[in-house]
Amino acid sequence: MTTPESDRVIDQRIQRVVPLTTPALLHHELPLDDALTSAVIAGRRSVSRVLDRTDDRLLVVVGPCSVHDPAAALDYAHRLRVAAEQHADDLLVVMRVYFEKPRSTVGWKGLINDPGLDGSGDVNTGLRTARALLLDVLRLGLPVGCEFLDPITPQYIADTVAWGAIGARTVESQVHRQLASGLSMPIGMKNRPDGSIGTAVDAIRAAGVPHVFPGIDVSGTPAILHTRGNADGHLVLRGGRGLPNYDADSVAGALAQLRAANLPERVVIDASHDNSGKDHRRQPVVAADVADQLAAGQRGIVGIMLESFLEPGRQDLDPTRELTYGQSVTDACLGWSDTAQVLETLATAVRARRAYTPHPTPA
């Protein structure tokens, strides 16, 4: 006799359960070899040195809003590698390779959750596809950056990542603060969508200390994780409530909040989202303002984020037509030609900051 779903004590609203591959098995199928391991560690150390300002370059996290086409993303990576090498003296370029798309309501949740772009939810394929792309990007010599949204998926891909982020919607979550405290790479905490900076400052403090929480180990076994705390937490300014916070006064205010909390005074500017009014064409305007601040000697700005892909703008997922190659299906992105110009502008500004001499204060 079949029990009606309404009479079940558990899984009343679970339609089906699919076994999940273990992190250890995925690592075995798609291993991080010794050379790539060294590259990841070198990338993390480089990011840490930029954050600590022992390296005076600017961190630039740049790439698609959310990867939907691995082939196009790898094509982008080939172009970005050339630019990264060109500007290596002034910019530390990290490719944004995001696979999890946070949603305020509903929509495509990213390549890991739905690699077929069709709602089928083949997470096992998504994890394999994501890890394979990360290894391909690393082989080109580019460090990679990811946002961590689901607390389980880092066991599958975090060993490849040089820089990570906790997003604006999850920065207040205890689960994500605990997760960040145990991650092996520097983590940027974004201010909340309403523009609140204090919440992200609290997240940096929370992630900087040890925590104990349940999770999974690399074998996929439930485990109690004891963390050491992450000393490389930092603030990412992305605007809020339709208002920007990348200007000099906003940056000064953010640095003051960090100082009051006894945290390192360092910020990364997200040129997209509310800082650009969600208009990809304004990202160069934001970058130009940041460049002016750098050239005027602002050393509290340690990095910038850009949403960029091969083609400018965005497109909707539509099963009735073929997608435009290299164009975002989530947030609108800069095209490659505009991205190259922005990187040049930022590199020039870093050289100007390096040469900047403050005017003496009158006696």
TrEMBL record:
- E.C. number: 2.5.1.54
- Could you tell me which residue ranges the DAHP synthetase I/KDSA domain spans? 50-343
Q: Which InterPro entries match?
A: Aldolase_TIM (IPR013785), DAHP1/KDSA (IPR006218), DAHP_synth_1 (IPR006219)
GO terms for MF:
3-deoxy-7-phosphoheptulonate synthase activity
Please state the pathway this protein functions in, per its UniProt record: Metabolic intermediate biosynthesis; chorismate biosynthesis; chorismate from D-erythrose 4-phosphate and phosphoenolpyruvate: step 1/7
Catalytic activity of the protein = D-erythrose 4-phosphate + phosphoenolpyruvate + H2O = 7-phospho-2-dehydro-3-deoxy-D-arabino-heptonate + phosphate
Entry's SUPFAM superfamilies? Aldolase
What is its EC class?
transferase
Keywords of this protein's UniProt record, alphabetized? Amino-acid biosynthesis, Aromatic amino acid biosynthesis, Transferase
| Role | Stereospecific condensation of phosphoenolpyruvate (PEP) and D-erythrose-4-phosphate (E4P) giving rise to 3-deoxy-D-arabino-heptulosonate-7-phosphate (DAHP).
PANTHER family registered for this protein in UniProt:
PHOSPHO-2-DEHYDRO-3-DEOXYHEPTONATE ALDOLASE DAHP SYNTHETASE, PHOSPHO-2-DEHYDRO-3-DEOXYHEPTONATE ALDOLASE, TYROSINE-INHIBITED
What's this protein's family per the entry?
Belongs to the class-I DAHP synthase family.
What is the designated name of this protein?
Phospho-2-dehydro-3-deoxyheptonate aldolase
Q: To which species is this protein native?
A: Micromonospora cathayae
> What's the source species' lineage?
Bacteria, Bacillati, Actinomycetota, Actinomycetes, Micromonosporales
